[in-house]
């Protein structure tokens, strides 16, 4: 993984360079203003073509099957199901289509669930238009993109970790990054600390919370959050 100056963390794969090819996009979002705003952004962006839009999951499935877009931009909360299930369905029904969550929900666990469901990115709607375009170009080139603002202001979670486990504020930050599924080097980059410092923090965190390993630590944290959005269920 690597960080970019535009505020996102990237994971690369071997997809060919597609910077000069057309990028066909479908939007799935209940908010009409989002449709209008994105249409305006893409209309003035070379090689970006908005080929369809939907305000509910059943409609989105029909549009995806009809247009076979390169990228699906969808919100987590959408009528007819949810964005995570739509990502999961899209990966099976239209393998060339790369689902990207574009949401107002700054939630590390939700971002992790989205990536586990097959999303190629998790971005916030507060991203400047030029950053959004840049991130979508990165997705098109085969990278997975995670908005670096995700989980930076998790005050309630930190207080929970401090009260329950006796963690320091920095240890709370590191634990939130671990829950998001990031590796040590990526955590170091996001928090602007040394790689060895991250390892030391994680060792202390595991000892304080009584966890055997990172997976056990994540399970302990999840046990304090019973109301998270459920993971995707494969839809025929």
From TrEMBL:
UniProt key word Transmembrane helix: no
InterPro entries, alphabetized: CheY-like_superfamily, NreC/VraR/RcsB-like_REC, Sig_transdc_resp-reg_C-effctor, Sig_transdc_resp-reg_receiver, Tscrpt_reg_LuxR_C, WalR-like
Domain of life according to the entry: Bacteria
Single biological process term from Gene Ontology: phosphorelay signal transduction system
Keywords per UniProt: DNA-binding, Phosphoprotein
Gene Ontology molecular function: DNA binding
Domain HTH luxR-type residue range list: 160-225
Keyword rRNA processing belongs to the record: no
Transmembrane segments: none
Domain Response regulatory: 24-140
Name of the protein: DNA-binding response regulator, NarL/FixJ family, contains REC and HTH domains
């Amino acid at each position: 993984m690597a960080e970019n100056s535009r505020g996102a963390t990237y994971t690369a794969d071997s997809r060919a360079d597609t910077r000069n090819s057309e990028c066909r996009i479908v939007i799935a979002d209940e908010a009409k203003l989002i449709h209008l705003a994105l249409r305006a952004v893409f209309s003035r962006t070379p090689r970006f073509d908005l080929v369809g839009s939907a305000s509910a999951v059943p409609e989105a499935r029909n549009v995806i099957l009809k247009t076979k877009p390169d990228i699906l931009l969808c919100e987590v909360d959408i009528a007819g199901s949810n964005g995570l299930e739509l990502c999961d369905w899209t990966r099976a029904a239209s393998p060339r289509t790369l689902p990207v969550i574009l949401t107002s929900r700054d939630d590390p666990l939700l971002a992790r669930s989205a990536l586990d469901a097959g999303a190629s990115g998790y971005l916030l709607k507060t991203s400047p238009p030029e950053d959004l375009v840049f991130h979508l170009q990165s997705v098109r080139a085969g990278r997975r993109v995670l908005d670096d603002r995700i989980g930076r202001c998790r005050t309630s979670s930190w207080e929970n970790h401090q009260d329950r486990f006796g963690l320091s504020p920095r240890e709370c930050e590191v634990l939130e990054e671990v829950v998001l599924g990031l590796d040590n080097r990526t955590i170091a980059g996001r928090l602007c600390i040394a790689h060895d410092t991250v390892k030391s923090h994680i060792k202390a965190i595991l000892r304080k919370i009584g966890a055997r390993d990172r997976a056990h630590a994540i399970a302990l944290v999840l046990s304090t959050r019973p109301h998270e959005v459920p993971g995707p269920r494969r839809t025929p």
